[in-house]
# Entry
Amino acid sequence: MARYVATRDIDWTLLVIVLLICGVGVLQIYSATLGTDSHSAWWKQIFYIGGGLVLMWLVLPADYHSILQRVPVMYVASTVALLGTFAIGEQTFGSKRWIPIPHTGIHLQVSEFVKLVIILLVARYLTDLRTEEVDIREVLKLAGLVLIPAALVLAQPDLGTALTYVAVLTVGVFIAGLRWKYFAVAILGAAMMVPIGLHFLKDYQKARLVSFRDPDQDPQGAGYQVIQSQTAIGSGGMFGKGVTKGTQAQLHFLPVPYKDFIFSAFAEEHGFVGVVVALALYFVMIMRIVQNAQTAPERAGMYICMGVAALLLSHVLINVGMVAGLMPVTGIPLPFMSAGGSSIWTSFLALGLVHNVRLRRFVN
Amino acid sequence: MTLPQGDPNLEPSVSDKPPLRDDTHFAAGRIAVFQYSGVVIFLFLIAGFWRLQVQNPEYYDERAQQNRIKSQPILAPRGRILDRDGRVIVDNHASFTLYLARENLKEEHLKPIAQGLDMDPDDLQSLVRRYRSRAKYEAIRLKDEMTPADLAFVDSHRDFFPELEVITAQRRLYPQNGMLAHVIGYTGEISEQELDSPDFAKYKPGDIIGKFGIERQYNSTLMGVDGQRQVEVDNLGRVRHEFKEQTVQPIPGKDLQLTIDLDLQAVAELAMDGRNGAVVALDPRTGEVLAMVSRPTFDPNKFTGRIKAKDWKEINDNPDHPLFNRAIQAAQAPGSTFKPIMALAGLETGTIDENFTIHCPGGATFYGRYFKCHLKQGHGSVSLHKGIVQSCDTYFYNVGNKLGIENIAQYADMVGYGHPTGIDLPHEAAGVVPSEEWALHVYRRKWYAGETISVSIGQGALTVTPIEMVRAISGIAMGGVWHRPHLVKDQADEPTSWPLDPKHVKDVVDGMYGVVNEGGTGGRAKLPNIEVCGKTGTAQVASAEYVKSVGGGHELKDNAWFVGFAPREAPEIAVVALFEHGAEGPLAAPIVRDVMKAYFDKKARLETWRQQQTAVAGAIAAVETLGLPAAPSGGRN
# Structure
């Protein structure tokens, strides 16, 4: 089968779009960290992107069917690694997410890589069912499998990443033909769970939810990030203030303008026009991945591509929605733009999975 | 892996194997739903940005500007206060206050901060803990009046401890030991009531204004206009950039030169040390106040910035009322110091002439009541001159009885009693000049003739403030020209004058000369080679019967007065001293003498110095005309 794999079959449109987004990200990181201690982040980001391309390339030769064979091993390894994060993880901003790699100075965020395992797990499970209308009992079993790592991530605490796992699962079972009525029941059930969920949320998470609904209630506390982010975006206007001219980011009113809030820094400097262009790039990127799902030769490949599409869509929705004040504040990065190795590498690995499927579409 | 050719669903008949059910077509509909959901999500996001960036950019732009551009006041320094020779009495000094911002406070910083600032780490910990429930943006005031060592520590650790913030303010530096405290007053933050009053309507909350004394009276002169600068700050409030072209420079307050002579003031302060009362020295020719003391005093330095509760309580609860300026507010019975005015009234109205003589057996009976003279054995035959010199009460009982209260009131009014003098200090009080009308008005009763007898020797309802008294005597000494006392130099002044007969004035002045120089009651005010004139006064605080009934006590002892001027002809200085509960008039005389001596000593010193200067200048001129090389000291060209 390997003889069908050829570089000319790579989805060049998709790759060019992704690299454009990465370029915008590097430029924005450069601008947002100008004159700060984090200014080295922009060339580190280029290094991460290069590493991401290599990782993507490394994923291509192994047939995704053989990768799916190893899902149980990967699943167990992920759970152990997430548990390990609690044991030896480093705490930053009040949450334990990172494992330091000795002698490299690199900190890996395990929960990022686990996203890929969730995608593969869902794809393998649903493929193995071989039905056209997935049974609710099977969905519950699969949900149980996904919820174990999701619960571990939620306990770090990292609500945003846990939500992306759930998004991958939801889209998976939706594609697999779960009846609409179950989605209705799930939405109702989730609504009823909110009061109970609030009970278990950490204080800062509750504060974020409150400030999401009314940022002015506590302008110096939890609402601060939302207000500053909205101020940055709004003051950018139609055409933006220009590169390195965004006062909200340059004067540090915007929290972490090169990571989670990179999109509001971008919106401040490039305006509504820039926002539409950037979101259009993301939209085309996701739709290209969906197209790869549609041309997949069989179900496993389709589920993998749809999982990646679901992951990226949920990331964009949660992150961009957050900076615009449309979603509660949850610290997750914007794929291909936010500074950080774990996020970039995970995203490129996901892209590698999509290509792995694409290169084998003429298998028969 | 062996897969059948073609799509198994399309060509089921071709395959002989059961369908693998691995086709993806079943999912096409659901994938389309996902795509439409994607479109909706992106439209939702774009709508959010549309609302922020296209519909309300002005609102958010304003917020961003408010975030980043702060206008900071540039404080205008308050004008200095100088004495008549230009010596600085009140100056400003830069004072630094340290604040601890709590927004980015790191717990582990507290210990090194405490060590660096020489504070107890546990104190600092508990201070921070006490603020825990307050709003985050409320900074903790760590230290007032930072030392140079504190400043150096904060400056060198700016990057390590960004939470430390230094606020600079200009503080007033007042003389130590409460010297001149009542004249100068003090400054403080403007209060709510003051903001509502018309005098201070133009100021804004937080402004430092004069609250008392000269600081208040001349606030608009002393206070400058604060400037403003526009700066760009980051999220920690650190200044990143200054918009220089937007800067409004402050207009500093003007310096104020007082008429006070620090040399005389120091002597007067020293003379009143440990006593309660007041001293005022005037130039009778102009009304310039040369010295003004009120005791007890207070330290105005405690009022600058925020006064400590303990200090305020101490000053406020003091039974002697240190904030009370006795020189302009203490209206007391003038006692015998009123006698020269009685004499003048008698002469001017023609009720008596200089030859009017009575016999003093130690008292006299008027209207059925016996009025004692202060000398039990009596003064014998008493003329006008002897009456003033010996301060014979019986003599002036007779003068008063002949004059009647209306004439007495008219002349008391003429010398300015019963009215504020109009000195340029806030809260001046006036004494009381009783009359028939006054009795009717205030007490709704008839005037008793016996009261006239008491008023004749400066008792009864008659009260006078020290500043009124010194002004009154100055005017008489000047032959009937009364100037408005004032503390700030070069003021246009419309003096009050009265065409007094110079002969009558001479009779009174000669009497006052006798008081000091002819074995009178004010012998202790005598100065060699200076013709000092004056009058003592012993004023009862309570009636003798009352004092006896409660067995005496310091606060019931008589007040001692002395008012005098010098020289006899062409007076240059007039001084009053009120020595509260000093028991006897003569005790106030040395205080006046000391101040006068200081005045004339200084004058003599200046005269000698001027003569020397003239002599030196003359010598240099002589040398130059002779064509000889100039003396080394003349090398200033």
Remarks:
- The longest helix of chain B spans residues 589-625.
- Residues 280 and 292 of chain B are 4 Å apart (CA to CA).
- DSSP finds 21 helices and 21 strands in chain B.
